[in-house]
């Protein structure tokens, strides 16, 4: 009898898991409560993988010996609770795929900067000629790549939801960028639960693995004191560099690791701003662990193009600059965005609020923001937070309305910033859809 595996969710990670499971001889059933995208449906049909959409057939799902769950399905969902009460293991795609590869893994997590650091690390390794795959929250599904095109190294962006479903998986190099309140609605509104989730990135690490972390992050510093850290600990921060570690001295970014030193002027980094210096340090350390040459590292750190929907300086219309930061789905990301812009700002914000505390933005809004355009089905929390702090707070029911309102409120020399601080699912498919719609409406002005 073939081992029965059920995949819940038929997006990129679910379909990748199904392909790998089929290849490894499992009896596979894919179930999605929503509609499955055409391109994924075609793949499942072509490969003759059994699937259903717009429902979960419990009787079939509860027959599984293992369940691979999409990161979007919360642990508290009744179906997941039922599976757990029957002791049926529920794991993530990353955990599943990790069982079938001996490739080296660089795993990157944090509340902010994950995607930028992951893509930058991938860019450095790829430019150095290594056989490297990009996976996790970005790129193609890890499981799909393990099934169809093995790489020697994977750079994997991991959300806390993916980490929650990882048990035996081990990162050769773990990167923890920062921990700030995010997704607390999924963690019983407990910051400690969320922090524990992030620290799962170092579970199973051995003495010759590496743990790269931000020494300037208070929560990380506090947690490290409470835990036994087995791997080589490599801190980075804006003070003088440790050894091993990275830091800033005389406007130079300096990395010390494995008896080697790398230095580069922070003015030559392609990613500017304090938060991006952290991202560059983390990617630089991870690359040096894999013995990338200094000249290759310097070149890649200076020519990286950045990430779409993350502080993307898009267009100028009549002297007004439009910046697309749709990827900012939490307050901390938006703090970085507001902090990095020098011109007066018209800020487009809103969406599905994840239990946000906007008070940390008050000082920046007072100083820099001349108007706020609230774009969401329910903007009451934004009004409660900013009425009286910003001069103008207006509502918009669509991206077209929001961009037009922002354009009228802005003047030559101002910046219109889309940095929602919220999830996008009330009016958009995802943050990419939100960012694309923003850019389209700007083009139409």
Summarize the structure.
With 445 residues, the protein is α/β, with parallel strands linked by helices.
Describe the structure.
α6 (114-127) packs across α11 (274-289) and α16 packs across α17. The protein is globular, with a radius of gyration of 22 Å. The chain is built from 17 helices and 20 strands. The mean pLDDT is 94. With 445 residues, the chain is an alpha/beta fold. The protein has three domains: 4-91, NAD(P)-binding Rossmann-like Domain (Rossmann fold, 3-Layer(aba) Sandwich), CATH 3.40.50; 95-303, Mur-like, catalytic domain (UDP-N-acetylmuramoyl-L-alanine:D-glutamate ligase); 312-443, Mur ligase, C-terminal domain (Protein-Tyrosine Phosphatase, Chain A), CATH 3.90.190. The chain has helices at 12-23, 38-46, 58-61, 78-85, 93-98, 114-127, 142-148, 160-164, 191-199, 218-226, 274-289, 294-303, 331-340, 362-368, 380-386, 399-409, 431-443, and strands at residues 4-8, 27-32, 50-53, 66-69, 90-91, 104-109, 132-136, 153-157, 173-176, 210-214, 232-236, 245-249, 252-257, 260-265, 312-317, 320-324, 345-349, 369-375, 392-396, 415-418. The strands form four sheets. Strands 7-8-6-9-10-11 form a six-stranded parallel sheet, covered by helices on one side. Strands 15-16-20-17-18-19 form a six-stranded mixed sheet, sandwiched between helices. Strands 3-2-1-4-5 form a five-stranded parallel sheet. The longest helix is centred in the middle third of the chain and has 16 residues, at 274-289.
